[in-house]
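Supplementary Methods, section 5.1.

A reviewer requested that the exact input to the structure prediction be made available. We therefore reproduce it here, unchanged from the version used in the analyses.
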Amino acid sequence: MRVALAVPRQSPTPSESLSAMLTQVGKAETLNADLIVFPEASLTGLVNNDDPRHDLSLGVRIPGKETRALAAAAKCHRIWIALGLLERAGSRLYDTALLITPSGRIRLKYRRISAGWHGAKASTNVYGRGRALSAARTPFGSVVFLVCGDLFDAQLIERVRKLRPDLVLVPLARSFEDGSVNQRRWDRQEKPAYFRQARRCGAAALLVNSLDRRTHSFGGAWAVSADGVETAAMPIGRAGMVTANMARR
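The structure derived from this sequence is encoded token-by-token as follows.
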């Protein structure tokens, strides 16, 4: 299978973000990609601040106009789409990931289980966490999601291993504490830890990081084999797309 890892520069409004994503879906088709993967919170960026009056407005309904537009693009371009977004369900907000089929159906919906996407004092009545972790059968094997900090939860990694997936999709919104965009620091200090965690899942992994100046998320994308070897990468600090060929186990 051929995958496209897409890192758009985060736009200030969901409508602009969606437009950029739809453009990249079309580009992925021209590159003969079977699957395109976007970062965490792709429509808004991870700009929540633990104030429900602000944060609930970031969430989108599923299904809703945004997911319908993405589903139509998947169908038009005959491609699978994976993305992270902030989901509003009633009066609750979730950090969610979706896998959309080329027929325009949502094949897998995953709500982030780890709590790191919001502050420790954020109201649990508003800021939700998922519980379910499941795999979706696809033509390119069994697929699961982990979102950002989920990758460093040992219990979640063990649950993933029990599902025996072929591919783990990991949308990210990762930044350094000092707000820097430092490729050397990432390569030497951070990337090895991410790749070790990916390897512990027992499957190939696709990691795609948000590029957002507001939150200092520094972008970058990586395809990692089941034995933890990088097979394709896009440097941090740049908007764009990288493709990779992934073999099933």
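The mean pLDDT is 97. These observations are discussed further in the main text.
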